[in-house]
Specification:
Elements lengths: L15 H14 L15 E6 L10 H19 L3 E3 L9 H10 L3 H18 L15 H16 L3 E11 L4 E3 L4 E2 L2 E2 L7 E10 L5 H6 L9 H11 L1 E15 L2 E8 L10 E4 L4 H9 L1 H11 L5 H6 L4 E9 L7 E7 L10 E4 L5 H10 L7 E3 L14 E3 L10 H15 L2 E7 L4 E2 L1 E2 L9 E4 L3 E4 L21 H4 L5 E3 L6 E4 L3 E2 L1 H4 L3 H4 L11 H7 L4 E5 L5 H15 L12 E4 L2 E7 L5 E2 L4 E3 L5 E3 L7 E7 L10 H8 L1 H10 L7 E2 L2 H22 L12 H22 L3 H24 L4 H18 L4 H11 L16 H4 L4 E7 L2 E8 L5 H10 L1 H7 L4 E7 L3 E6 L2
Parallel strand pairs: 1-2, 1-24, 10-12, 24-25, 26-31, 32-35
Antiparallel strand pairs: 3-4, 3-7, 5-6, 7-17, 8-9, 8-16, 10-13, 11-12, 14-15, 18-23, 19-20, 19-22, 21-22, 26-27, 26-30, 28-29, 32-33, 34-35
Helix pairs in contact: 1-24, 2-19, 3-4, 8-9, 18-19, 19-20, 20-22, 20-23, 20-24, 21-22, 21-23, 22-23, 23-24
The structure holds ligand ANZ and zinc ion (ZN).
């Protein structure tokens, strides 16, 4: 886009290119941001953490926003006298590294470490106040070995299980796929039709904590309401009943079918019972009936996701079997196998009541099953052509007739219980967390399989189980499995020949406890009790809303699991959570519709946009979240190179409240750049005043500037406390304007010593309260004023003077007989006599009082004067 800084003088006054590295070096040399694992200086602690990055190659604007927000908090808290822990690391395992290795014929480690080196440099050039001595990457054995130890502790505590579960199996690649890797029922890489397959996998027993994970959400009052709601829905507590339906004729040794229902009140409207395709009864039927078997096989190709099941057309198979009804004597209800019933929820079977459940309605309509309404809406009629799911009164329902829905649920459950056909039950949507992945670039699961001893955990003193380096990616499947020697070991128990587990952990495991490791990254055990007692929980966690569910839930589970296994004293990891908005940008397309990078587009004087240096017309598209696919990205590295880190930081903070999306514009960043120059020029002008003795007498101009200064300190403090960083920026622009104004006043009255002192004070304060946002410029300005006086990074946050921030005057209401008749303006705390006299003289009031006898004069300081008159 247009060359925004070409309008600037050739050599800018403030040369960020030399200044920024200088101050970064100074902070580093003074170890400003280094803290101890267990500080003993008695200061309060504050732990600021941004979600650590995946080392994908380069930082993007989302990172810049995320880490700038965190850095403002960290620098502000430090200035307020806290010991601040602000660490950084790398979420370094994962599939992209394996894919890159495959494409480039290199090694995932090489790719990952190259990226880390590059991104570390970029983050350091941003001037973040990070304790780099704590840095680690999750792909280091020093980290993932401790993770293996945690796994063993969880194992001992009963929080790890090995279970069979259904997975998405890619028959061509010979691997399990995550749900996101199944696209339209096919493997994302091979394109093969995906099958459901049962596999033995490792699980973390997150469901054991479901009730606490739900209940504790109420106490997370510094989390966005939206995130708490999403977590609650994901955990999904559901209250209902388990009902057993006896088969009219047993099938082999199966005599009844259990269903889970949240609507036992609708039992009289039941018209079918449906089994999941993997239900044992369905399988038993399939074993004898080729048609049923074919239907089950077809369902299996559907993938395992609830989303896939929800969007697929409902299909069923009538088994010919029937069940009895608990309340309707002699009724025989058909049993179906249906593709919309999930095996891993409730009991894997449902009773269908088409009148009051939309899925059941669709199913019944398709197969001509009866639709019997049993709930009459409180108002209006039953809807036509769809299920009614609202409240109402029961009808056509025997002993439930006339009861409300809630009462009927209890009544139905009580009756089922008395009959021995069922009971009340609570279910949770939350599933145990399957963590086995058939991948190389992850943390090996520390287990050995022995023919004699079964699954044997690797003894702690044999950790870490290190990934072999010599692997190849030329074959589909898991390279750990293909490795000629790695998996062949002796059993730790019987010493016989055994094989290692070749699965690695889901990479979400790596990010579920890194915050605890940051408290003592060198500690011999995974976490140090002393260090986490001091630092945990994280006071302010900052990241994207895309992690609202899984990452946060897993981290909450891990914290509880670490507590249950005796390693940590807290149960919640993040006391405060802030979710930032996206960075957006205009998008551009060339004449042929291809996406263009902003750097390829030139805006002409006549307002038209063309491909730079050509005549090709560019269509300016919507403003959207920056994304590689739309090419509407701006490279932070290039911005910092051209304008400096402070400009990038300032602009990204200025545009909008941080929880909202912000639009990156070239004009915005150029404006921020000009502001850095303007501040520096102001600082030069003030520094040239030299030493000034503050005189006893103030002057109106000095008083005006001092008021602006102190009000800005108050406002910026409040804004930073409440994450209103854009407000802080706006207030600082105002202070700069007041300082420019004062500079003009000073030219008019060169001997106003009070004004000179006020200008110096303004600059001193400005440097300190801008520092969290533009830390380098703040140091440079401070250096102009007080060379060699030490670093702003070590300065305390300034206090403001109350007498200068209070309003200059208050508006006092003047009443006659309690009715508002006028107002007068006075400085707060003015004496009653003066206020009453002015009130009496107020023209409108004076007219009303004329010729009247005043019985009483009421004065409420700074608020009201009321005159009570006779007659
Ligand atoms: C009969 C019924 C009648 C139902 C009615 C609803 C409305 P939540 O709230 O998510 O717990 N269901 C139970 N297990 C299922 C499974 N494995 N796969 C698919 N659906 C299943 O939902 C519980 C309801 O979802 C249950 O209540 C059951 O349908 C269905 F008018 O039972 B209901
Ligand atoms: Zn053994």
């Amino acid at each position: 886009m247009t060359d925004a800084i070409s309008t600037e003088p050739q050599a800018p006054r403030y040369d960020f290119r030399t200044q920024e590295p200088l101050w970064q070096k100074a902070w580093n040399e003074h170890a400003c941001f280094t803290v101890e694992d267990v500080p003993t200086d008695g200061r309060p602690k504050y732990y600021v953490l941004e979600m650590f990055p995946y080392p994908s190659g380069k930082i993007h604007m989302g990172h810049v926003r995320n880490y700038t927000l965190g850095d403002v908090v960290a620098r502000y808290r430090r200035a307020r006298g806290f010991n601040v822990l602000h660490p950084m690391g790398w979420d370094a395992f994962g599939l992209p590294a394996e894919n890159a290795a495959r494409e480039r014929k290199s090694h995932p480690a090489t790719w990952t470490w190259d990226n880390i080196r590059n991104m570390r440099g970029e983050l350091q050039r941003m001037g973040l106040s990070i304790d780099w001595s704590r840095e680690f990457a999750t792909c280091q054995p020093e980290y993932y070995g401790k993770q293996q130890e945690l796994f063993l502790r969880f194992f001992e505590t009963g929080l790890v299980e090995r279970k069979e579960s259904w997975v998405n199996w890619d028959p061509v690649d010979g691997t399990v796929l995550a749900n996101e890797q199944v696209i339209d029922g096919r493997g994302w890489r091979s394109g093969a039709l995906i099958e459901k397959k049962k596999l033995s996998q490792w699980f973390f027993a997150i469901t054991k904590f479901a009730p606490e994970l739900l209940a504790a959400l109420d106490n997370l009052d510094r989390w966005p309401e939206r995130v708490r709601l999403m977590q609650a829905n994901w955990i999904g507590r559901s209250e209902g009943a388990r009902v057993r339906f006896p088969l009219t004729a047993p099938k082999g040794d199966i005599a009844d079918v259990e269903v889970y229902t949240t609507r036992p009140d609708t039992l009289f409207g039941m018209s079918f019972l449906a089994l999941a395709p993997e239900h044992p009864l369905a399988l038993a039927i399939g074993a004898q009936n080729a048609e049923a078997d074919a239907f089950i096989a077809e369902c299996r190709r559907l993938g395992t996701t609830a989303a896939a099941i929800e969007t697929t057309e409902k299909r069923g198979f009538a088994t010919g079997l029937t069940v009895r009804h608990p309340f309707i004597e002699g009724a025989e209800i058909p049993v179906w196998i249906a593709n919309f019933v999930l095996m891993d929820y409730g009991t894997g079977a449902i009773f269908g009541c088409p009148a009051h459940d939309q899925r059941d309605w669709d199913f019944a309509t398709l197969y001509g099953l009866p639709i019997r309404p049993v709930v009459k809406p409180a108002q209006g009629e039953l809807p036509e052509g769809e299920a009614y799911t609202g409240p109402g009164t029961l009808m056509n329902s025997g002993f439930l007739d006339g009861l409300g829905v809630d009462e009927s649920k209890s009544a139905a459950i009580a009756r089922l219980k008395k009959m021995g056909w069922g009971e009340g039950e609570t279910n949770w949507r939350l599933r145990d967390w399957g963590v086995s992945r058939q991948r190389y670039w992850g943390c090996p699961i520390p287990v050995i399989h022995c023919d004699n001893c079964g699954t044997v955990p690797v003894p702690v003193d044999q950790l870490p189980v290190v990934l072999p380096e010599d692997v190849t990616f030329d074959r589909p499947g898991n390279p750990l499995d293909h490795h000629p020697t790695w998996k062949h070991v002796n059993c730790p128990q019987c010493n016989g020949a055994a094989v290692r587990e070749t699965d690695t952990f889901d990479t979400f495991v790596d990010s579920s406890w890194y915050f605890a490791r940051f408290c003592s990254p060198q500690n011999a055990s995974p976490v140090s009790r002393e260090a986490t007692d001091y630092w945990m929980p994280v006071d302010q966690y900052i990241g994207g809303i895309e992690h609202a569910i899984l990452h946060l839930l897993y981290a909450r589970f891990f914290t509880r699991a670490m507590q249950a296994s005796g390693q940590i004293g807290v149960d919640e990891p993040f006391a405060g959570l802030f979710t930032q908005g996206m960075v957006t940008h205009e998008s551009y397309r060339g004449a042929d519709g291809r996406w263009l990078y902003p750097t390829e587009v030139e805006r002409l004087a006549d307002g038209r946009s063309v491909v730079t240096g050509t005549d090709e017309q560019v269509t300016v598209g919507r403003i959207e979240a920056m994304s590689k696919s739309k090419r509407n990205t701006i490279d932070p590295g290039a911005i910092i190179e051209r304008y400096g880190a402070d400009t990038a930081r300032w602009f990204i903070l200025s545009d909008n409240p941080p929880e909202r999306d912000m639009e990156w514009t070239e004009s915005g960043v150029a404006g921020a750049y000009r502001f850095t120059q303007r501040l520096f020029r102001l600082a030069e002008s003030i520094a040239s005043l030299g030493q000034v003795e503050t005189p006893a007498e103030s002057s109106p101009a000095a008083r005006k500037l001092r008021r602006a200064t102190h009000r800005t300190i108050a406002a910026v403090t409040e804004a930073l406390e409440s994450f209103s960083f854009n407000v802080a920026v706006a207030r600082l622009y105002e202070l700069a304007a007041a300082m420019t104004e004062a500079e003009k006043d000073a030219t008019a009255a060169a001997d106003d010593k009070a004004l000179s002192a006020a200008r110096i004070e303004a600059l001193e304060m400005l440097t300190r309260i801008t520092a969290p946002m533009m830390p380098h410029l703040a140091e440079s300005m401070n250096d102009l004023l007080h060379a060699g006086s030490g670093l702003v990074a070590n300065d305390a946050w300034p206090d403001f003077d109350d007498s200068l921030t209070a309003a200059e005057t208050v508006t006092i209401a003047v009443q006659v007989m309690g009715k508002l008749r006028g107002t007068v303006e006075f400085p707060p705390g003015s004496p009653a006599e003066a206020v009453i006299a002015a009130a009496e003289a107020e023209p409108n009031v004076a007219r009303l009082l004329e010729g009247k006898r005043i019985v009483k004069k009421v004065h409420v300081p700074d608020r009201i004067v009321n005159f009570v008159i006779a007659g």
